[in-house]
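Run log // design_07
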């Protein structure tokens, strides 16, 4: 796993972490599980957060784009199918859904997006 940080004069203003993971086939949305083995390899995007004093400046979007770029770059090498996130608030949930993430059919608090869809999101500049 790895953690990536935005600093402003040695103050942490934003961060996210990435870790390898997997999900059971039946817990994944249709487009994630299509033609995939059991379990499905994923990257877990953990705790993307921005300091309250720096919110509203596009830093969350910038961190998400950075995470997507790292995952897309590694996806062919490590063979992951999707990105998984567990948003902690309704606001965070809306943020991820705006960027193509969809709920798990079994656990609605878990959101996922395929790497292919993430590539589309990255290219459109979301």
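design_07 sequence
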């Amino acid at each position: 796993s790895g953690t990536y940080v935005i600093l402003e004069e040695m103050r942490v203003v934003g961060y996210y972490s990435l870790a390898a993971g997997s999900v059971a086939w039946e817990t994944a949305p249709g487009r994630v599980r299509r033609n995939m083995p059991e379990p499905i390899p994923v990257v877990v995007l953990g705790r993307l957060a921005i300091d309250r004093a720096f919110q509203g400046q596009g830093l969350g979007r910038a961190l998400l784009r950075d995470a997507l770029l790292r995952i897309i770059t590694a996806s062919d090498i490590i063979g992951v199918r999707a990105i998984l996130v567990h948003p902690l608030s309704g606001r965070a949930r809306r943020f991820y859904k705006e960027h193509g993430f969809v709920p798990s059919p079994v656990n609605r608090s878990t959101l996922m997006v395929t790497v292919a869809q993430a590539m589309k999101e990255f290219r459109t500049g979301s």
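The beta strands are 2-8, 11-23, 40-50, 82-85, 102-103, 111-114.
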